[in-house]
Write the structure tokens for this entry.
Amino acid sequence: MAEPKEKSLEIWIIDDDPFLLDDVVDLLQTLFRDPRKIAGFGETPLPELPKLRSFPSSSEAQVHFDQLLSSTEGQTGLDRLLFALVDLQLPDESGLDLVRRWKKLRPALPMYLFTTHGSIRSAVEAIQLGADDYLEKPLTHHQLQRLVVQSLEKRSLLREVLLESPRSNPTTSTVSRTFVSASAKSRAIEETVHRLGLVPSNVLIQGENGTGKELVAKAIHLASERRQAPFIAVNCGAIPDNLIESELFGVERGAYTGADQRRIGVFQAAHGGTLFLDEI
């Protein structure tokens, strides 16, 4: 007896601008019409065109999200969601509020915020809440390619993580040396760190001062394929407000009085590795 065909993936677009929605839908349809546009952009196999759902408000998207959670499909229904593209300025609330709620329930769900007028503050807040990226409108074909491939690769890696025993990976010994795992809770943290190291995603680490947040971040770095690249820790709370932008993103020579030489920011310095933003 043939196995039932798996239902197609879905992409949700939450934005109240019908013209922009039409543009995004057209770009996605064009992208999936030609397999080479994704196959040449990453290693992930190309699925069929996902079902595109659009919601003009946060409340309408939330209703559908809640229905999937409470239906007989449960988590399986949400597992078909490849990613959600959320406008920062929705008519009923900020897109940041939607990201906050959904990421609490489904941390691994790729969510991308986009906006007409971006700012460093909203970008930092979006990443802090777990958004996978922060983009400015209008979206380009190249950006949509990247979002699709990034989401497909993350989906594939998550499946590998769920199927793989953490003890079978050579990086496990590296992580074990980072912790003194005397208790069951410590061993649980060690296992979680190992799994997070396999997924190229932003991670929010919470805890009181002195509980070892930087140690955990370093362990995730060592458990990942980025372990040979830089690990850079930045205490954001110790940087004055007027210097935070140049510290994070760098500064060009002559940009302001006293800027006598070009200096790269920590984002560029950590490229290919891990950037740990403490006290954000």
